From TrEMBL:
Keywords: Membrane, Transmembrane, Transmembrane helix. It is a multi-pass membrane protein. The lineage of its organism: Eukaryota, Viridiplantae, Streptophyta, Embryophyta, Tracheophyta. This is Uncharacterized protein. It is found in: Membrane.
Length: 320
């Protein structure tokens, strides 16, 4: 049998080594991506032997109570402005629309502060304090300045003309309520989701289920404010309705603080606006640059990102 050509054997050996090398590179890359994902989670989240459904349940109850408190003021606000403050239906509806819009605008402020600087726990605590402060002023202003005589504003007994001081305090109060609840809403939703570790399949499913329960808690709190509190307010017991809302908000804050030792926290990532602007500037400057290799796209070596609280974006060949 003729022996093989030495040059052919050498070529086959080189080809085999090249294939093995490419396979090793692919395996190393997969392994590096997995290690990077684990490192990102460890860096950005302070994992403790807590969290899970115990902590999330407290936050769900907090959401329910805070929603009850907020809608205890908001659901009958048009009637209060017409029956107690003597405004026309058009003016009352216009004022309530502005107030509702303020709630949604303040949600942007709360989300920005929680993700960028304060963290979700501190943001939730601060905005709940603002909510409680607003409800205190709502109760005080209605009790001492606006509801005169007692029981007025029920659709039959008219209230006496209100003082400018009482009206000013009331408007300050309801906008504090809007600011507090608006900033609290986005923070409590994501803070509850932070109690579950996505790297664990069981907790990943629990995290998805949490948002369903969160929506249920929101509507459950709204149900009580739209039935029980509305009944008292329609009967002219406005101050009682506001005091019940205040009690619900205080209970929500106390329960939130009570669960402090059991929470898990995600580190804030700093102001994202400069980083977003950098993307557009870099895209314009490098419009004609030839795409780099996958292993040359990271800003620093190693599994961690140079941006605090951020993850490295893995390279994808899907877009060319």
């Amino acid at each position: 049998m003729d022996s093989a050509d030495p040059s052919t054997n050498a070529a086959l050996k080189v080809t085999g080594e090249s294939v093995i090398s490419r396979e090793n590179v692919a395996v190393d890359r997969i392994r590096t991506e997995e290690e990077q994902e684990i490192a990102n989670n460890k860096r950005s989240i302070i994992w403790k032997s807590c969290g899970g459904w115990n902590a999330a349940s407290i936050l769900l109850a907090n959401q329910c109570l805070a929603t009850l408190a907020f809608f205890g003021v908001g659901v009958n606000l048009v009637l209060f402005l017409t029956r107690v403050l003597g405004q026309s239906n058009a003016d009352a509806a216009n004022n309530v629309s502005k107030w509702t819009g303020t709630v949604y605008m303040c949600s942007l402020i709360g989300a920005f502060l929680s993700d960028s600087y304060w963290g979700r726990y501190l943001t939730c605590a601060v905005f709940q304090l603002i909510l409680v402060s607003g409800l205190v002023l709502v109760s005080v202003s209605s009790w001492f300045f606006l509801i005169k005589p007692d029981g007025c504003g029920d659709g039959e007994l008219a209230c006496v003309p209100t003082s400018s001081v009482g009206v000013a305090i009331f408007y300050l109060a309801i906008y504090l309520v809007a600011f507090g609840y608006g900033g609290h809403q986005p923070s409590i939703a994501t803070f509850g989701a932070d109690q579950f570790d996505e790297s664990k399949p069981k907790e990943k499913k629990s995290k998805a289920a949490y948002f369903s329960y969160f929506y249920f808690a929101l509507n459950f709190g709204s149900l009580f404010s739209n039935t029980l509190l509305v009944y008292f307010e329609d009967q002219g017991k406005w101050t009682l309705g506001f005091l019940l809302s205040l009690g619900s908000a205080v209970l929500a804050l106390v329960s939130f603080l009570f669960g402090t030792p059991g929470y898990q926290h995600v580190k804030p990532c700093g102001n994202p606006l400069p980083r977003v602007a950098q993307v557009f500037v870099a895209a314009v400057k490098k419009w004609n640059v030839i795409p780099a290799k996958a292993d040359e796209l990271y800003e620093v070596e190693g599994p961690e990102s140079a941006i605090k609280g951020s993850r490295k974006i893995l390279h994808s060949d899907d877009f060319e």
